[in-house]
Specification:
Helices cover 13% and strands 19% of the residues. The chain is α+β, with helices and mostly antiparallel strands. The strands form six sheets. The protein has a four-stranded mixed β-sheet with strand order 14-13-11-15, with helices on one face. It has a three-stranded mixed β-sheet with strand order 2-3-12, covered by helices on one side.
Length: 337
């Protein structure tokens, strides 16, 4: 398996997505969009209570990507929290939009990033390939309702993860639902499902051992996907097997936004001289240019991008959206919904 992948996109890997600015360098800021009243919505995704505990955060497999800052490994204590059993679905996001009139950034900017095999758009809508990752294209009319472009729709996809959601969009949903995004540490602790030090949510067995365990790319990336796991793009959120906490698809399927700002030196900066010191509920850097994404997606490949591991980190700008990026939420720190 490849252990180093080139930082050629906003997410730092080929299956990640170029930032919005990479797709359209002369980008201007869109006008005001509809917003929602905080805490007024009904979040319908099943909740899982993750017990408090301590775990070793960071790469233990040797497959780390140096530029991502997956080391040094360090002890982290996490308080009890509630997390969505699945990523937010198209049906759940549609309820939010219907209740609020919210306009996503992909809709406001007028385009989003689509993988070339998932295109469903007239030629005039395709803005061209992204620099360095030609399998990604900016597509006019691509948004959460039209994941492949304006010739696509959500018919039969209500239980799939909502995609083409920017970090800012995810925060708007959280505000409406009285929720928040997980911190990077909470996400990794939850993904491990109680198996400390494991490479994947199910343990150390490879993703294709004894049948596919997650939705990633099969075949020859990026030209041919054999769809051995049954899916070209997203899978229903309750596909495969949940981890030890009952959480579905913490790796593969779609990248998941986290609350934290991204910096490759986050773990090094947080390390102390006494390696036995445990950090409690870390929240990441105070500022930055990009936000953390976790979990990999349906475009990760066994021989190319290995970021569908518990410890793998990625990032993109808060206004960027993509056909393989979504989110799940956690309960607010004040204990309310």
């Amino acid at each position: 398996m490849t252990t180093e992948t080139p930082a050629t996109s906003g997410c730092g890997c080929g299956c990640g997505t170029p930032s919005r600015e990479q797709l359209l360098p002369d980008l201007s800021v869109p006008g005001a969009r509809a917003t929602a009243s905080a805490g007024t919505g009904r979040h319908a995704i099943e909740q899982i209570r993750v017990p408090a505990g301590t775990f070793t955060m960071g790469d233990s497999s040797g497959d780390k990507n140096r530029a991502d800052g997956e080391t040094p490994r360090h002890e982290v204590a996490i308080s009890t929290f509630d997390i969505d059993a699945t990523t937010v679905t198209n049906d759940a996001f549609a309820r939010f939009v219907e209740a609020t009139g919210y306009v996503t950034e992909a809709e406001s900017f007028g385009f989003s990033a689509v993988f070339h095999l998932a295109l469903a758009a007239p030629e005039e809508d395709i803005m061209g390939p992204a620099d360095g990752t030609p399998w990604w294209a900016g597509v006019k009319g691509a948004d959460w309702r039209h994941p492949g472009g304006r010739l696509s729709d959500l018919d039969g996809l209500g239980d799939r993860p909502v995609v083409h959601i920017s970090w800012n969009d995810a925060i708007a949903y959280c505000d409406w639902a009285g929720r928040r995004l997980p911190t990077e540490a909470e996400w990794e602790y939850a993904a491990r499902g109680g198996i400390d030090g494991a490479k994947y949510p199910w343990g150390d067995q490879e993703v294709d051992e004894g049948g596919w365990r997650a939705n990633i790319f099969q075949g020859e990336f990026p030209r041919r996907n054999t769809c051995e796991d049954g899916y070209l793009t997203t899978a229903p959120v309750r596909s495969f097997t949940p981890n030890g906490y009952g959480l579905w698809q913490m790796v593969g399927n779609v990248w998941e936004w986290c609350e934290d700002w991204f910096h490759p030196a986050t773990y090094r900066r947080g390390a102390t001289a006494d390696k036995r010191t445990t950090v409690t509920d870390p929240v990441g850097p105070q500022d930055g240019q990009t936000r953390v994404m976790r979990g990999g997606s349906y475009l990760c490949h066994l021989s190319y991008c290995n970021r569908y591991r518990n410890s793998a980190r990625s990032q993109n700008t808060p206004d960027s959206s993509m056909g393989n990026g979504g989110f799940r939420t956690v309960g607010r720190r004040d204990g309310r919904a």
